[in-house]
């Protein structure tokens, strides 16, 4: 069977499974819709959190980013896992004990202010939309690359599937679908990684294979460490050494700030936080944070291995080869524009960091534009430079040197010469990663609007069934909006993902931590802190990304802080403003103090207020 | 009668304060380790640590912490917190039980 036939089969099977689960888990009340009836076991919630968290970016792009960044790629590995320690220790158990439905619920109730609630709702909706647009795009990309379906039709199919299972089952349907999606995506990620690890190092554990020696048949001699060989190849070609720390713009301050912003941002992302409301107890909330990171670490410990293997394999099988010697995966992916060869006329492919580099990517160029560049380049070659345009210079000027980073994961199975059904499995895995994250985000949007805005602020008398139908219709609207973003991606989508983390880091995290660990912090300081943190972070990112503002060094750093890392500073500003204003304003009332006490108290101890069983919630 | 419920109440409050202090203590220790492993070994001291190699492997130490070591430490930290807090919860529950019986 061909790759395409296998892909159709796997995608159809996995979609069928998701719909079947949705039908079995359909819900009739808001508790089921928002928090899965609080009946999800810790390990299953951990798995669902892992699938919710690992997006199309984690699955398709992260290994490729690490592959080109080397050591500095660790900011994503550390940043996107380190946040779970903060979550497990500082947030998850207490939010579960608090026991409402959403994150703005906590902020609004703890600081007894509708302004705080509305600010939190706006942040939650903004963060979720930024994210979900990228996921829908990811669905379209997988469809178009593996099934040769038009990208728009791919997005529409993805929208329809998410819509059905999110509206039918709400959080309950989403949770159990995500459990299934976790298995699809982790299998799809691990099998190619294991295969390429065996091929290069002989080790069936890619995580360990990264640190071992290359197979003698590949390195030419025995006892050569993969990483050392990779460092040597990289420096020979003019790239910086793979394991070297702090090269280029990634100096110590920036690596630190970006990693910290991603960690704190992860801990403040609403679609991750809300998952801890769905478990049975506080104890289960702690355990599900553990399970979540354990399941996530399976992929995150494998990704650096895949990155290094694919980097080595790609350079080794392309650099210095003639057209006849090129591997077949190169041809397959050349068609997609992810990798391009612009020969200088000697018929030998060269990959380097310098001007003689011949490997490029299509990037955002359309197929027609890329074809024009190729025609001009061929004319330039044929006329010995008298006519046409040197495609290398043209693409270099557009900063399109080197292959697209997505190729690292997408082409690994072919590099390792795996069977065609495994290649198809990667497509199903990419879709699972994108759909699971999209559905979690859509539910956050739905609960933010229908619960926090409609029920808590606008119509406190709304009946159960009214709230449920508002929740369902909001998902419908949100799916359509997300789909439109996916089909016509606004140019800024990829740039504002950094914004989502920075915003979460500068708003939710300090507010929730102070709300739990201090009884003294009152409404005004907390709201001022949130506004100062968001205001600063938003200003800096918008100014840097859209108005070419110079990055700031704050007078002490050698290089300016990149917009990706500014959330760290925004978080500090939020903490500082809140704490500085706190002594100037009165203590919160007795009810708030009692609420904080009840959140801190372990379960089944003393006469705890059972908020979640109270009818009005 | 009201005296005994008062003392029982204040004993329970004291038990809760002890529970909270123990919670803060373990959190501080684990967050300290989190900072040392992730931000310290993985970033701040990565260049120094990179001079050493994990014996028997090709991993420079700083690079390993940034790409794998920190993640392993993070998982273990959450595990340690779960196990410790389960014991602390049980102990607290037993304490309250005794106070209730005495009161």
Characteristic terms for this protein:
heterodimer, A: 617 residues, mainly alpha, Sodium/glucose cotransporter, two-stranded antiparallel ribbon, B: 103 residues, 3 helices
Description:
The complex is a heterodimer of chains A (617) and B (103). Chain A has helices spanning 3-24, 30-35, 42-53, 56-69, 74-98, 103-110, 114-147, 151-201, 206-209, 216-219, 226-236, 252-268, 270-273, 282-318, 328-334, 367-382, 391-397, 407-415, 420-458, 464-487, 497-506, 508-517, 523-546, 566-581, 590-600, and strands spanning 340-341, 359-360. Chain A has 617 residues and is mainly α. Chain A folds into 2 domains: 3-313 and 416-612, Sodium/glucose cotransporter; 340-402, no CATH class. In chain A, α3 (42-53) crosses α14, α5 packs parallel to α12 (252-268) and α22 packs parallel to α24 (566-581). Chain A starts with a helix and ends in a 17-residue tail after the last helix. Chain B has one domain (2-102). Chain B has helices at 2-44, 46-49, 61-102. Chain B is rod-shaped. At the A-B interface, α5, α11, α12 and α14 of A face α1 and α3 of B.
């Amino acid at each position: 069977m061909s790759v395409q036939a296998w892909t159709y089969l796997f995608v159809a099977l996995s979609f069928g499974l998701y719909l079947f689960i949705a039908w079995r888990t359909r819900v009739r009340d808001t508790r089921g819709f928002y928090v899965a009836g609080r009946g999800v076991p810790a390990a299953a919630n951990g798995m669902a959190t892992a699938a919710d968290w690992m997006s199309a970016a984690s699955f398709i792009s992260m290994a490729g980013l690490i592959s080109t960044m080397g050591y500095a790629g660790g900011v994503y590995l550390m940043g996107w896992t380190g946040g779970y320690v903060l979550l497990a220790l500082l947030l998850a158990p207490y939010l579960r004990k608090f026991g409402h439905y959403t994150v703005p619920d906590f902020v609004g109730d703890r600081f007894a202010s509708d302004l705080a609630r509305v600010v939190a709702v706006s942040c939650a909706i903004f963060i979720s939309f930024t994210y979900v647009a990228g996921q829908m795009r990811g669905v379209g990309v997988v469809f178009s690359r593996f099934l040769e379906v038009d990208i728009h039709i791919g997005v529409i199919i993805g929208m329809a599937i998410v819509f059905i299972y999110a509206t039918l089952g709400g959080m309950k349907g989403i949770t159990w679908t995500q459990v299934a999606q976790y298995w699809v995506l982790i299998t799809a990620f691990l099998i190619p990684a294991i295969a390429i690890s065996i091929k290069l190092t002989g080790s069936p554990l890619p995580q360990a294979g990264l640190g071992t020696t290359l197979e003698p048949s590949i390195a030419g001699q025995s006892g050569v460490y993969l990483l050392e060989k990779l460092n040597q190849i990289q420096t020979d070609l003019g790239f910086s050494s793979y394991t070297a720390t702090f090269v280029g713009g990634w100096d110590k301050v920036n690596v630190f700030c970006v990693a910290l912003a991603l960690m704190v941002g992860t801990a403040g992302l609403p679609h991750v936080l809300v998952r801890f409301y769905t478990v049975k107890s506080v104890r289960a909330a702690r355990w599900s944070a553990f399970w979540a990171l354990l399941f996530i670490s399976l992929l995150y410990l494998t990704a650096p291995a895949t990155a290094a293997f694919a980097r080595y394999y790609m350079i080794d099988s392309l650099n210095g080869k003639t057209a006849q010697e090129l591997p077949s995966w190169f041809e397959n992916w050349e068609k997609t524009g992810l990798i391009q060869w612009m020969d200088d006329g000697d018929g030998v492919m060269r990959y380097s960091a310098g001007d003689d580099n011949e490997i490029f990517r299509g990037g955002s160029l359309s197929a027609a534009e890329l074809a024009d560049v190729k025609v001009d380049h061929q004319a330039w070659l044929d006329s010995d430079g008298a006519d046409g345009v040197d495609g290398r210079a043209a693409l270099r000027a557009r900063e399109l040197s080197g292959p697209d980073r997505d190729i690292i994961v997408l082409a690994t199975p072919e590099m390792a010469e795996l069977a065609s059904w495994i290649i198809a499995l990667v497509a199903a895995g990419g879709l699972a990663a994108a759909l699971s994250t999209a559905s979690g985000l859509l539910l956050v949007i739905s609960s933010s609007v229908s619960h926090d805005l409609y029920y808590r602020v606008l119509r406190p008398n709304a009946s159960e069934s009214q709230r449920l139908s508002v929740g369902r219709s909001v998902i419908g609207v949100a799916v359509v909006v997300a789909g439109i973003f996916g089909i016509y991606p606004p140019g800024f989508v990829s740039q504002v993902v950094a914004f989502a983390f920075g915003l979460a880091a500068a708003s939710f995290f300090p507010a929730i931590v102070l709300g739990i660990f201090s009884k003294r912090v009152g409404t005004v300081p907390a709201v001022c802190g949130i506004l100062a943190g968001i205001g600063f972070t938003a200003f800096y990112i918008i100014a840097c990304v859209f108005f070419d503002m110079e990055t700031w060094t704050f007078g002490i750093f050698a290089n300016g802080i990149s917009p990706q890392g500014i959330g760290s500073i925004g978080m500090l500003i939020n903490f500082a403003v809140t704490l500085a204003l706190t002594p100037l304003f009165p203590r919160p009332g007795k009810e708030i103090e009692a609420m904080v006490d009840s959140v801190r108290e372990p379960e089944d101890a003393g006469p705890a207020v059972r908020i979640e069983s109270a009818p009005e919630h | 009668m009201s005296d005994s419920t008062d003392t029982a109440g204040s004993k329970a409050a004291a038990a809760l304060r002890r529970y909270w202090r123990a919670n803060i203590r373990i959190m501080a220790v684990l967050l300290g380790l989190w900072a040392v492993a992730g931000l310290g070994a993985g970033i701040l001291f990565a260049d120094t640590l990179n001079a050493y190699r994990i014996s028997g492997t090709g991993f420079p130490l700083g690079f390993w912490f940034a790409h794998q070591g920190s993640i392993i430490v993070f998982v273990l930290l959450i595990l340690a917190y779960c196990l410790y807090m389960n014991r602390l919860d049980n102990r607290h529950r037993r304490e309250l039980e005794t106070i209730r019986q005495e009161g």
